[in-house]
Each structure stands twice: as structure tokens, then as C-alpha cells.
Amino acid sequence: MKVSAGYFLMVLLIIANFKTVNSQTILSGKIQNLTNPSIQKGVNVLIQAQKDSEILAFDVSNGDGSFSLTIDSPLDSLWLIAKSLTIETVELRIANTSQVIEIPVEESFLELESFMLEGAKSPISQKKDTLSYDIDGFSDQNDKVLIDVLRKLPGIEVNPNGSINYKGEAIQKFYIEGLDLLEGRYNLATKNMPVDAVKSVEILENHQPVKILDGLEFSSKSSLNVRLKKKNVLIGRGYLGGGFPGIWDVKAAPMIFNDQFQSIVSLGTNNAGKELSDELTDLGNQIATSGNEVVNEWFRPAGFRMGTSQDSRFIFNKSILASVNTLKKNSKDIQVKSAIDYSREDVSNSFLIQRTYYLDEGNVEVSEAGTLDEIRDRLNLKINLTKNAETDYFYNQFDASWVNSRYRSDVIFQNQNLIQDINSPDIILSNSFRKLIKKGEKVLDFNSYAFFLSQTPRLETTPPFLGFADSLQTASESLQRVRFNSYHFNNSLSIKNMRLLGLNTTSSFGVLLKNSVLGSATYYRESLIGFPFQNNIRLREASGWALVSAERNTKKSNLKITIPVKFANLQLREVFEEMSIESPNRLFLEPTLFFSWEASPYLSFRNSAARKVTIGDLYDIYPGQIFLNYQTIQVKNAPIPIFKSNRVAFSQSFKDPLISLFANSAFSLAHIKRNVLMKNQVLESGLVQLSSFERENIEKSFSWNGDISKYFPRRKTTVAMGSAYNWIQREIAVNDVFQNLNYKQLNGYLKAVYRKTGKINFELRYDLSLVRSATPNAFDNESIISTPSFSFLLLPNQKQTAKLTFESLSISSNVVESKSTVSFLDFTYNIKFPAKRIEFSVVATNLLGQNEWARISNSSFILVEEFRTLRPRQLMLRVEYAL
């Protein structure tokens, strides 16, 4: 009986075990990606009873992508999920039966909120197309405003004028909490926003600013967004400073930010060498096609400075700025923006400029020394209405500007005293309109742009212009007047998101109407001089254009081909006699090709090829002579200039936020064909005669630039280096001799910012520029400029900072006997009272007492040696308050 019971129990156990084995499901298979097999390894394969429920089985794929799971579940169907950091997640519903399954997967970008590097949390993270910099990870107690930290961020380059580059290109938009308050004038924010109010800076890669086009029209541009630590906040900063010798510096910049309203106000005045109008420079690209019109500069002030990072050391200024910028947003995504600005720059500096003209028959040397006084007033009004919704887009911006620039030069030219006055008032009006309407799958895009410019500059010299024979032997005056008016209208309609041969296609057509009138007159000893010293001409352009563009966008690549055709009717007429000078008709084809490829989450490529045709304006065509200054006279009695350029560009970008490493490289080739050449005639007296004439000529150019930057979290240190090379070959005509000019420029920089928490930090930067210009027979000039700078920071505690900066400028040339070197030493001490948000500073500049600044340029057949009188030693006491 005992045997029978034991036998019976054993049979039951065998049956139970048999049923258990037969109820298990064995699932095996393989993860597959033919393009990049390496991502097949390490994929998590999960089995769930229902989606988002508990996990029934789990495995990780092998190097060849294989996996195997055993599942014990009575359900008829199950959920299979395959996911990892390198693939797009796959979710499948499968039958609960033993089977072999192949799972095709697509590569995915890393989406990491944060990560650890060398035992320290990295302040850089990336999620999809958004790269985020945690500002607290880069800033220290010496940083005051946003731009101080932007200069330290790896992958981001801040240029001397404040413009911001990412991947070697200027950013497209500058947002604050997702809103575009400043429309490209973001110096107002970066130079005034307290850095301790900023939480993070985001780079929006491949950013399409028009929501209705997101997903329909690819954009390779990047934008920047500033995230604040607090919402609905009043922030800002202000300071009051004064010191020796008789200097002042006052600034107030309150800001308001909330979900419905934003405002930045900037008020300031100083005579400490800072030009406040730089804050109003438009550094961005507008959504609407405005053309970003260039205002013509008819005259050249004697002793005019070209602008360098050292300007603040040698200009003696009185600057005034008042700017109010507001944005109001309602619940219907409608934004009303306004900006009103006034700025005045009253600048004086002393100079000595020596020019050597390298001619085939021998060199001509000219020197001028004296003072240049500049007063530039600008009043500007902007009113903008924008609606940027996913199904509707509207944009209209009206701009009105009044600019008045006055320059007075008191000069000794070739040992002769003379005075030159320039007064140049300009009125500029423009309106940009854009409307997008969604019609089913298609989008209609209406664009309209209107522009008006009025200029009435005048140039007066005593004694008269050098172009008059007895000009340096008389005390009488000469006067050059110019009257230039121009307006144009550009209207277009585009139909987007059409499908043709499986491609996303856009068709556009438009009309451009342009009218420009130029009048000029020259007076000598109060008498009007007629032709060849006068102009009364009109240029009219009526153009029609049409284009077709097609693009194919995938997750990793973007291809776009644009084929525009333009017909232009041009009429150049003499106004008084109503005589036709030239009336050509032209048909242009301007195709472009763009291709981008994301080879991996780290490496991307962008390539382009384009043909562009540019038609000259009245600024480029006038038969009567116009004096540009007392020394230079110009006439452009040639056919309407038409420039045909062909350009190819290739760029590569590498980024790895995980290790905080960024690298960019780009090179381009250009071939430009012109129908007009400018001739230079230089006389022994120093008179320069410029004239254009009909002659086909070719310009060839090659450029390359690259940069690499790395952040070390444990030491809070950013290291960056970069280089750029440019080569241009073109024909020049000097004193009736035609030669081929070869111009080469090599620039490089190295910078390191050491910010490890401790008592001592430092900043290091070294800039090098090498310029060479040569022709086969006349000259071969080379100049080298190096600018090393080193800052030593002492931080006794969290309230005090002392900074000592040494900077040097060294210049040498193969045609200048001596090497020029000037060194500067500056000192700053800050003490903060955080509870009261007050800071006291002592700022001392030019402690070495340097008197003269020097610069050399040799871009063509002219070598220019420029010397400026420096500001003396300065000591300023300043109190600053932060909201």
C-alpha cells in the first residue's frame, strides 16, 4: 500500500512538471540594423502582459543582436518592447507561442537629462535637438552679466561685436523664455542681464522658428534660448561710477519677464571709453525677408577708425543710450512688440596715419595727422505684430530710423593744414509683412517688403579738394553735395508642401520694383562746377522671378534643390535731359543645392552649392565725379555692374555632450565673374583717383575655418582653439598697370578659462593674425599681429574678487624696420554684500601709462600704419545694484 501511494505521488509530480514545461513560451530572435550593426548589441528586450505593466521576462541582446527569453503566462498575446539609448523604441504585440522573431530597429540620438563625468556632474545635457548648458556650472563670483558666461561655454563662440556663433554659424534667433523680444538686437540682453538670474542657456538645433512650417520645411539654423531661474520676475542691474581724470559711468537696465509680458530697458551714459550704441546692433536674421539693407557711405572721414577690440583704449567719448523694448502676448498667440531707441556717440581721438602706395614705377608715401571728432545721433522706432501658431502665422514689422552723422577732421596732410567737415543725415523707413495660410495639406506664403531711403550728405574742406590744382595754396572752401533717394517693393507668393515625385515641393513667384535717384554737385570758391563734377541720374529696375524648390527630409539627411529664374529690366537715365544711358534686359538662373547628413549622434555634415547674380545700384554707377574726401575722387562711368558668383561650401561638426567636446570645420570655394573693374590712379601729390570701367575680371577665393573646445567639469575649465585661413586672387588696376593680387590671411586663437573652486583662478587668450598681399612685380607685404592676454583672479572669499589683467599687442612687418609692442595692465577689485545685493568696485586701467596704440593693415597695394593716442591712466570707483 505504501508502494502504491509513493508511486501515485511520483506520477502526479511528473504530470505537473510536464504541464509546466508545456505552458512555457520560448521566444528567440535578433535585433537588426543593416546600416550600423554596432547598435544591435545591448538592446533591452522586455515582455509584458499589457503595455506599461509589470515585466514578465527580460534579456539583453548579444553582439550579433540575438536574444532568447522564456515566458510563463497563460495569456494569448503579449507586449514585446525593445529599447536602448542608441535605437528608437520598438513596441510589438505578439502571440504567446514559441517563435523566432526578427526586430528591425532605427538608430536614435542620445537623450540624456544629465550624466556624471569623472566624478562630477556635467553642466551640459542634450535632449533631442536641444542642447542645454547649466549656467551655475560655468559661472563664478566674478561674472556679472550673461555675456561673461557665454564666452566660457564650449561649442559657443562670442565674437567681438557680441554676435553668437554655434557650429561656426551665427544663431538664427535669440529667445528669452521662448519669446523673441529683441528681434536680433540681443546685445541688450547679453550685456545687461544679471548672470545669477539665468538658469540655463539652450541651443535649439535645426530650429524652425515658424510653427506652421515645423515638420514641413527643414531648417539647418540654430537658435538660442535663455531660461530664467524664476518666473514672473523683475530683474536687472544698475551702477554709478566716477573717477580720475574726470570720468563717469552710469547705467540702469531693469527687466520684466512673465508669461504674457517682457520688457528690457537700457539707460546709460559714460565718458569711460564704452560706446553704448553697440547694444542696438542687429546681430540676427529676420524671419521676414527684409534684405537687411546696407546704407551707402558716400564720404570718408580723415582719420576714420575701422573698429577694433581695442577701441575703448583710445577713444575719448561721451555716450548716451536710451532704449525701451516691450513684448505683450495674449492667449491667442498674438505678440505685440515695440522698441524705441535714442543713442548719441560723441567721440574724439588723435591719430597719425601713414600710407605707402606700392606702384610699378615706385612707391608714394602719404601721411596725415590730427584729430577726428565724431557725433552720431540715431533715433529708431520699431513696431511688430506677430502671430505664430501651429495653424496660423502672421508677421508685420514697421521700422523708422533717423540717423545724423557728423565728422570733423583737423588734419596736417603732407605738411599742410586743412579742415574737413562731413554731415550725413539719413532717413530710413521699411515694412516687412508675411502671412502663412494652411489650405488642406498645402501652405500659402505671402511676403511683402517695402523700403525707403533718403540721404543728403555734404562734404566741406578748407582748403579745397586736392583734385583742384591750387587747392593747397588757398584758404577758400570746396563743397561736395549728394542727394540720394531710393525705394523698392518686393512682393511674392509661395505654395508650400506640394508633393511631386515623392518630394516636398515649393513653387514661388514674385515681383520687384525699384527706383533710385542720385544727384550730386561740387562747389569751388562758392561757385557751382558743372560736368564732370555733377550727377543727375535715375535707375529703375522691374524684375519678375519664379522658383521651384524640392526637398527630401529623413531622420538623418536633408536634401533641398532650388531653381529660381529671374528676369530684370533695367533703365538708367539722365534726369534733366531725360536721356537713356543704358536699358539692358537680363535673364538670370540662380540654382542652389543643400545637403545635410547626420552620420551619427556625434558627427554631422552640411554641404551646399549656389549660383548668385547681383545687380549694382546707383551707388555703383555714376558718370560724374564725386569727392569722397579731400584726397580721393571717384567716378563710376561704366555699365551697370553685374556680379555672377558660384560658391560651394562644406562643413563638418562634431559634438559629444557626454564628454563636453565640440569641434567644427568648414571650407568654401568661390568663383566670381564681374563685368566692371575699379582702377586706382595715385599721384605723387597724394591725390587718389578711382574710376570704374568695363572689363571682364575673375575673382577666386578659398576659405577654411575650424575650432575645437572642451570643458573639464572637475576643474571647471574651458579650453578652446580655432583657426581661419582665407585666400583671394583677383585682378587690380593701379596707374594703368594690370596685375593679379594674391591675398592671404591666417588667424588663430587659443583660450583657457580656469574656474576651479578655490582661491586662485585664471583666464588666458592668445590671438595671432598673419596677412600677406603680393603681386608678381610690384610688392610682397606681410604683417604679423599677436595679442596675448592673461588674467589672474584672486578670490579670498565668496564676497571679494581681485582681478589683474595683462594684455600685449605686438606688430611686425617685412616692410617696416622696427617691431611695435604696447602692453597694458588693468586691475579690478569687487566686494559684494549679498543681503543688500550691492557691490562696490575699484577699476584701474592702463596702469603702465602707455601713450600710443599702433596697427598695420595691408589688404591690397596699400600698406597702412595707424597710430592712436591712448587714454591716460584711469581710476574709477563704482557702486552697483542688482534687482
Structure description:
Strand 39 (about 660-680) and strand 40 form a beta hairpin. The chain is mostly beta strands and about 900 residues long. The chain is built from four helices and 50 strands. Helices cover about 5% and strands about 65% of the residues. The chain has three domains: about 1-105, Immunoglobulin-like; about 115-230, Beta Complex (Ferric Hydroxamate Uptake Protein, Chain A, domain 1), CATH 2.170.130.10; about 240-880, TonB-dependent receptor, beta-barrel domain (Maltoporin, Chain A, Beta Barrel), CATH 2.40.170.20.
Key descriptive features of the protein:
single chain, five-stranded mixed sheet, 33-stranded mixed sheet, mainly beta, 883 residues, Maltoporin, Chain A, 4 helices, Immunoglobulin-like, Ferric Hydroxamate Uptake Protein, Chain A, domain 1, globular
**What is the fold-level CATH name, i.e. the topology of the largest domain?**
Maltoporin, Chain A
Report, as a whole number of angstroms, the end-to-end distance.
96 Å
Helix content: under 10%
Q: How many H/I helical runs?
A: 4
Structural class: mainly beta
Within CATH, the superfamily of the largest domain carries the name TonB-dependent receptor, beta-barrel domain
